[in-house]
Amino acid sequence: MTVWMEDVYRQYKPLLFTLAYRMLGSVAEAEDIVQETFLALTQSGVEDIHHLKSYLCKAVTNRCLDTWKSARWKREQYVGEWLPEPLADGSLENDPLQSVLMEESISYGLLVLLENLSPDERAVYVLRTALGYDYRAIAEMLDKSEAGCRKLFSRAQQKLDGAGEGLQVAVQPERSKRLVEQLIAAMSRADAGALVQLLSQDAVLITDGGGKTRAAIHPIRSDQRVVAFLTGVWRKWEKNVQIQVVSINGQPGIVVTAEGQPTRVINVVLNPDEDRIERLYMMINPEKLKHFSL
C-alpha cells in the first residue's frame, strides 16, 4: 500500500466503518466491507476520482445493499430474536475520527429499530442522518431520483416512529448510567422490589443467543417477568464473573465477563415519560461477541 493510500485509509476508515455498521448492525461484516472497498480502490484508477469521500461512501453503501440481499435467508433461518452486534466505544479510541463518531453516536435502541426498515430506506436514513448528505447526493449514490429518496426517508421516519412507540432511543449517558448502576445493585441483592421500581410496567427484555447458547426464543414482557428472569440469571452469574458498566454505542450498558472474555452484553432503552427502563437487549450469542473488545 502506497503512502498516499495509507493516508486515505486512515482518514476515511472510521467514517466508512460507521456507515457500514449502521447499515448492517454487524461489526464483522462492516469491517469486511471496508477492507473490500479499499482493496478495490487500490486496483482502480484513483486519479480519475474527483470526490473521493462520496465515491467511497457510495461503494460501501452498494456493498452493504448486496450483503443485505445475500444474507436475507440467514435472517429467516435465525434461531430466536436477531439483535445487532453491540460496539464498545473504546474499540474506536485509536481512530483519528473518534471524537466525530462519538458526537454522532447512534444508540443501540435506534440500531434495533433500524431493522424495521427496508435496505433502501435504511441506506437513505443513515446517509441523511448520520453522514449529513443532502438528497441530491444520496440520489446520486443510490442511482435514484431525489424525490424518490425524500419519499424513502419519510417512509423510514414513519416506520421508526411507529416501531419505537415513543421510546427514548436518543443517547443519554448520564441518565442511563445512573439507572444501569441501580439495576446492577438491585440484581446483586436479588431485590425484586427495587428492580420493579427501575422498570416500566410494560418493560420488555430481548435476548439473542442465535441458537449457539441458551436464550429466550421470544421477548420477555412485563416488569414482573423481566424481574424474574434477571434475578434468576444473577444466581448463575454471581460466581466467577465480573460485571461492569461500559460505554456501548454511545451510552452506558452492562458487560459480564468470565476469564476476561465477554459473555453477556446488556443495553437499555429508557422510557421518555418516567425515570425507568423500558427495554433491555441482552446479547449472549458468542459469534456476535467475538469482536466486542473493552
Automatic annotation (TrEMBL):
Pfam families: Sigma70_r2 (PF04542), Sigma70_r4_2 (PF08281). This is RNA polymerase sigma-70 factor. Residues 110-160 form the RNA polymerase sigma factor 70 region 4 type domain. NCBIfam families: PRK09636.1, sigma70-ECF, SigX4. Gene3D superfamilies: 1.10.1740.10, 3.10.450.50, Winged helix-like DNA-binding domain superfamily/Winged helix DNA-binding domain (1.10.10.10). Residues 9-73 form the RNA polymerase sigma-70 region domain. PANTHER family: ECF RNA POLYMERASE SIGMA FACTOR SIGJ, SIGMA 19 FACTOR. Interacts transiently with the RNA polymerase catalytic core formed by RpoA, RpoB, RpoC and RpoZ (2 alpha, 1 beta, 1 beta' and 1 omega subunit) to form the RNA polymerase holoenzyme that can initiate transcription. InterPro entries: ECF_Sigma-70_Domain (IPR052704), NTF2-like_dom_sf (IPR032710), RNA_pol_sigma-70_dom (IPR014284), RNA_pol_sigma-70_ECF (IPR014303), RNA_pol_sigma70_r2 (IPR007627), RNA_pol_sigma70_r4_t2 (IPR013249), RNA_pol_sigma_r2 (IPR013325), RNA_pol_sigma_r3/r4-like (IPR013324). The lineage of its organism: Bacteria, Bacillati, Bacillota, Bacilli, Bacillales. It comes from the Bacteria.
